[in-house]
Amino acid sequence: MLTSTRVCVLDIPNLDAAPYYMPIEADTPFPQIRIPSGHAAVHLTRYEDVKIALGDPAISRTLCNVEGGPTFLPGTTQKELLLNLDDPAHARSRATISKDFSPRGVETLREVVDATVRRGIADMLEGKRAPNVFASVLEDVTSTAVCHILGIPLQDRPMFQQWSRIIQVVPPDDVAGIEVAVKACYSYLMEFVTGQRAAAPDGFIRRYVDNRRNMHEPLDDAEFVGVLLGILLGGDHNALSVMTKCVYTLLCAPSLWAHIVGNPTRIPTMIEELIRLIPIGKLSAFPRIATREIVTSVGTIPEGSVVYANVFLANRDPEVFPEPLTIDPERINTKPHLQFGYGIHSCMGPALARLEISIVLNALVAMAPSMQLDADPDSLRWINGTVLRRPDELPVRFDALAGKSPHSIHASQS
C-alpha cells in the first residue's frame, strides 16, 4: 500500500506569480478585472464557466488581436498564429498538425528525447557538465524535439532561442525589440518554407510543402509560417517552462521527489497533478470577446464583453478538485485539468509535453535518485516574463548522505 505525500502548492517558493490584472468594482453579477491594455474584462474563475468560455466559438480571439484591442501584451501578434484565429480559419490551420502532435505522432520522438536526456544526466554525473539540471539537461530537451519535428538544424538553436525568448518574455518597455525578434523568427521560418534554407526531407516543414500540390485548399506560405511560429515558440519555451517548474517543485519538496523515486509507476499521476497546479506564466489564457450573450453560473455576459477565462484559478476550483492547493500524487480526478486549454484553442502540444516530462522524470529517478536542490530556492535566478516565467537555473547535488537541504519544505505524511 502506497503512503501518499501531499504538499501545499503555496509552500513552493516563488511558484505562483502576482496576478497580472487588477480587480475593479463593477455593477454586474460577475467579477471584473482591468487587464494591462486598460480594458475591463469579465473574470471567470469557476471550472465550468471557464470551460464554457474556452469552448464556445461565439467568444472570439480574432477580434482581440487588433490595434487597441484587449490584450496582456504590448501590442498585436502575428495574425496567422493559431491563438489568434477563429473557425473556420483555425480548423484549417490546426488540421495541419493534428497527426504529428497526436500521442502516436510524438512517439516517434521518444528515442531522440530519451537519448538527449540521458546524455545530459550522464555528463552531469560524470562532471562533464555543470551540476545544473536546467542548463545541462532540460534546456536541450524541448529545443531538440522542436528541431526534429520541424526538420531544422540543431546548430540553429542558439539563434532562434534568443528570438523566441524575447518574444515569450514580452518586456513591455522593449516593444521595438519584440518586433525585431518576431520579424527575425518569422523570416527564419519563411526561408525554410520557400527553400532558401534547407529543411530535412522527413521533417514537418518539408513534408507539408512538398505535399501541398496534392491538398485541397492548402495553407499559403504566411498561413503555414503562422503554424510554425506556434510550434517553435510553444514547443520550446512553453514546454520548457512547465518541465522546469515540475522539476523545481519536486526539488523544493523532497518528500514528493522521494515518493516517485520509491514509486516510479506514480510518475504519470504526479505529472498531471503538477501540470494542473503550475502556472506557465503571468497569464493563463488570452482574452476573448463575446459575439453574443453567454450564460454562465455568475450571470449572463453581454454581447461585446471582453472575457478572461482564468484557467489557473479554474484548475484550483474546490468544487472540482477537493483540497485544490494540495499536490496529491495519488489524486484521481473525475474531470481533467484545463492547463492545456479547452475547445478549439486547446494547446497543440500536450502529448509532446507529457512525453518529454515523463522521460525526464523517469531518467532522473533511475540515474540520479539522490538528486537534491543545492541552493536556497529564494536565491535562484528566474525569468519573470508575461508568457514565459520559470527558474533559469536548477543547481543540484547528488550526495545521498548529505541529508535534506535546510531550505527544503518538510511536508506532512498522510
Automatic annotation (TrEMBL):
It comes from the Bacteria. Pfam families: p450. The keyword Cell cycle does not apply. Keywords: Heme, Iron, Metal-binding, Monooxygenase, Oxidoreductase. Coiled coil: none annotated. InterPro entries: Cyt_P450, Cyt_P450_B, Cyt_P450_CS, Cyt_P450_sf. PROSITE patterns: CYTOCHROME_P450 (PS00086). This is Cytochrome P450. It comes from Paraburkholderia diazotrophica.
